[in-house]
Amino acid sequence: MRQSSLVVVANRLPVDDSVAPDGACEWRRSPGGLVSALHPLLQHTPATWVGWAGGTGPAPALPDIDGVRMHTVPLSREDIRDHYEGFANATLWPLYHDAVEQPVYHRRWWDAYQRVNQRFAEAAAAAAEPGALVWVQDYHLHLVPGMLRALRPDLRIGFFLHVPFPPPELFMQLPRRAELLLGMLGADLVGFQRAQAAHNFAQLATKVLHLPATDRRVAVENRVVRIGAFPVSIDMTEMEALAGRPDVVRRAARLRADLGDPQHVILSVDRMDYTKGIEQRLKAYSELIATGHVKVRDTVMVQVAVPSRERVEQYQILRERVEREVGRINGEFGRVGEPAIHYLTQPFDRAELAALYRIADIMAVTPLRDGMNLVAKEYVAARVDDSGALLLSEFAGAAAEFTQAFLVNPHDLEGLKLTLMHALQATPTDTVERMRAMRDHLRTHDIRAWARSYLSALDQTGELTTRLATA
């Protein structure tokens, strides 16, 4: 088995779900942009990506992609049900998002979580050459750093959490809280989206494990584990180029015409998830229509809500509620040919998304809780003429960077309505100044800057970081 100096361990492999008959695969753009961030580095160093290829049964043998080895980890139907849909997404996900929905605890889910994490750790151990860097990703694999250190103490291990990390009073609910913390502390560097998350983690290390900790490091036996904030980002250059493509510009013009060429277009692009604040946003918009502050003919709302985790009951119920509310609003306020809300559930390719970003006078990104929210960053990158207004939840990680956005507490319905009206009525000078400042920040804090920042903190030799800088 070929071994690698850099091993990325993530729940999913960065390849299409389907493999062509000739075995060809293409890079798949992941929601977190991890592939875009690491692709230049992975092409210049012996690298392996460890993850699940999708589906059940034996792990398929995939060819190398751009010189990067794909190491597949098999998952059974039981693994998917109890590890992925169960402990990861019905226990940890709601807990980490401020318990917007009540977390569910089942002992068999924990057993599956341990089993699957061990499988990923063993795969990473087999793929890594002596002294290699291993970068473990996200809440599906909390235990992997500790398991991997037991198997391969020679490795440099990093862990990055893409979602929020909750305050102690929430995390303390977990029946297996100590085990999860110890799993993360198997890493040399634990990264979070925001400094507050690192602070929460340090507090819990002291409270639960009785370890000496600061917001920058935790002492574990004879080791020091460093912790910190590394806000994830996007490939701004790629989105700018896409938004400026002639076919995308033409598509945007057609979309606006199809919407009736209104004065204002409000756009939201979300996964169908109870953390995204979709219901609160729809309620605020409908109340503004009911009071006459917004007129359907002049202002159009486009809500993209792509279904996700459809086998999880909470998500099925949410979709039904959202679709019922959209139907109510359109039935009460829409006209023939003029719906109050254009509601779309199909996934869009990157070019179509860029066209939607171009026509959106207001981008409403109002999650109740979000680790970062890269849609906000994609919108800013796509506004190549510095126009447009970003309505952004205070509880999205992006709010710490985009302080010039129209910031809002999505739990405050009146405040949400007021801030939306503020964005709709803002002068072009105001919106251009805000957007230009956000674009300037994003240009120097893109996806490569994020990867470089994290890996330079993890890689004490500096060898891999140098390759990333010159890639």
Instruction: Please give the alpha-carbon distance between the first and last residues.
Output: 27 Å
| Gross morphology | globular
* Gyration radius over CA: 23 Å
Query: In what order do the strands lie side by side in the largest sheet?
Result: 3-2-1-4-5-6-8-7
Assign the structural class, choosing from mainly alpha, mainly beta, alpha/beta, alpha+beta, or little secondary structure: alpha/beta
Rounded average pLDDT: 91
Reported for the largest beta sheet, the result is:
8 strands, mixed
Low-confidence segments, given as residue ranges, are 27-32
Count the beta strands.
Answer: 14
Helix content: 40-55%
Number of helices: 17
How much of the residues is beta strand, in percent?
15-25%
Please tell me about this protein's structure:
With 471 residues, this protein is α/β, with parallel strands linked by helices. Helix content is 45%, strand content 17%. The chain is built from 17 helices and 14 strands. It has helices spanning 34-42, 77-96, 107-127, 144-151, 168-171, 177-184, 195-209, 236-244, 246-258, 278-290, 313-333, 350-359, 374-382, 413-425, 428-444, 447-458, 463-470, and strands at residues 4-12, 47-52, 69-72, 128-137, 156-160, 189-192, 217-220, 223-229, 264-271, 299-306, 341-344, 362-365, 389-393, 406-408. Strand 12 (362-365), helix 13 and strand 13 form a beta-alpha-beta unit. The protein is globular. Residues 27-32 have low confidence and may be disordered.
